[in-house]
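re: the backbone from monday

yeah here it is again, tokenized this time
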């Protein structure tokens, strides 16, 4: 299975997926820490995370998959939502909470 297929399987196999640097307990960058904090504040219990630092192919592959240059990247029910800045804006407007309630 190639990297794109593995990523596809991951994002469609879990309701909420965050590709991040590090883990929720030990984020390795401020943006990933912020993303985890936002999802925690939203009450997401079934968060599946992928530490892109563990696999260079996934680290580059996820950028190509979403055509989005930065990490973290959030997916809800297989759909790309955005990175930490978009998550923050959506959280502040209440849009993220609504999306997570409806979909996840």
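seq for it, each position gets an aa:
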């Amino acid at each position: 299975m190639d990297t794109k297929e593995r990523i596809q399987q991951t994002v469609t196999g879990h309701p909420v997926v965050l590709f991040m640097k590090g883990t929720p307990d030990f984020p390795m960058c401020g943006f990933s820490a912020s993303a985890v904090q936002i999802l925690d504040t939203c009450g997401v219990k079934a968060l599946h995370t992928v530490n892109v630092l563990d696999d260079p192919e996934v680290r580059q592959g996820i950028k190509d998959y979403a055509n989005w240059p930065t990490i973290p990247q959030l997916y809800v029910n297989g759909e790309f939502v955005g990175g930490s800045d978009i998550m923050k804006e959506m959280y502040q407007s209440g849009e993220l909470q609504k999306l997570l309630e409806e979909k996840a």
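The domain at 3-103 is CATH 3.40.30.10 (Glutaredoxin). Residues 20 and 59 are 9 Å apart (CA to CA).
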